[in-house]
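Postdoc handover notes: sequence design on the structure in folder B. Input tokens:
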């Protein structure tokens, strides 16, 4: 099996890892889960993180085949449209984006002008669909549970799993967003754990648990199967669902979920400018998450 070169780009503000995945034979590549810099205090966007990826592509004379979004992220805004303007490539996500767009189109009251058919993307992957990055065989695997549209991508000897799994010492994705489901996530994870043990697994985040000192975002399927604290070999579906639902009930919503989702459901495009020429993001009140808890309650639930 061919082995792509994988270059990681870590965004400290959102603990997100983006990747350039390159076929060394053809110098063609895919970009996975890019980040648009967003200053929430000022409501300003910028492209420093994305520019690092563009610089890497240009300095290494790479040709971009794909800009892959593993799902509609709730913790960072995508820079894929801006990067596409700089270096090309097809912008793609899983076909169940339509479910996410329908759900969050209602949450944000996006109106009839917001298309809910995935047409903001160049390509919608089906479960099991095969494609190429240069000369390297790749395959999309539908892995819902965290969101309905999550896709993992096997590219050569590597798999990019988005938020489905974290490092073995941190566990698995939450399932309490609209459309999420812990039982579905367990079954999706089993699709990944049947890959060969030596398959390199690249993660979208690392939140640095107290048990270690340095950030890590690469592991293997074999390590996940043996050591993942939430879903290692021998963990039953019912036990996982009980753990996940109990844990999720203690979690607050991600800091950037409201700007992130309404941008990312549009394939990383900002909402259209209003009649004064300014673009706006909406903040739906008392809609997502549970009623606010006290600091004391939150400490008890951690």
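Designed sequence:
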């Amino acid at each position: 099996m061919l082995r792509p070169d994988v270059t990681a780009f870590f965004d400290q503000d959102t603990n997100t890892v983006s990747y350039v995945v390159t076929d060394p034979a053809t110098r063609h590549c895919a970009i996975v889960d890019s980040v648009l810099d967003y200053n929430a205090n000022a409501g300003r966007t910028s492209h420093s993180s994305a520019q690092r990826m563009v610089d890497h592509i240009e300095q290494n004379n790479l040709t971009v085949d794909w800009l892959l979004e593993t799902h509609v992220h709730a913790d960072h805004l995508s820079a894929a449209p801006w990067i596409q303007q700089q270096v090309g490539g097809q912008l793609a996500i899983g076909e169940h984006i339509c479910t996410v767009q329908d759900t969050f189109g209602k949450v944000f009251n996006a109106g009839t002008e917001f298309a809910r058919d995935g047409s903001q993307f160049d390509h919608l992957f089906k479960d099991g669909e095969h494609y190429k990055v240069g000369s390297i065989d790749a395959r999309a695997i539908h892995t819902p549970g965290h969101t309905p549209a999550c896709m993992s991508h096997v590219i050569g000897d590597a798999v990019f799993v988005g938020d489905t799994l974290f490092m073995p010492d941190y566990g698995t994705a939450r399932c309490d967003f609209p459309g999420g489901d812990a039982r579905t996530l367990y079954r999706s994870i089993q699709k990944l754990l049947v890959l060969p043990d030596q398959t390199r697994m690249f993660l979208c985040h690392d939140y640095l648990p107290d048990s270690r000192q340095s950030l890590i975002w690469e592991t293997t399927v074999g390590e996940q199967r043996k050591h993942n604290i939430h879903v290692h070999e021998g963990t039953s579906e019912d036990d996982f669902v009980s753990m996940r639902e109990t844990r999720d009930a203690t979690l607050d919503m991600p800091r950037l979920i409201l700007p992130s989702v309404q941008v990312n459901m549009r394939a990383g495009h900002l909402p259209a400018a209003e009649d004064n020429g300014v673009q706006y993001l909406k903040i739906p009140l008392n809609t997502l998450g549970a009623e606010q808890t006290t600091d004391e309650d939150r400490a008890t639930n951690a």
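Context for whoever picks this up: Residues 206 and 279 are 32 Å apart (CA to CA). Don't rerun without checking with the PI first.
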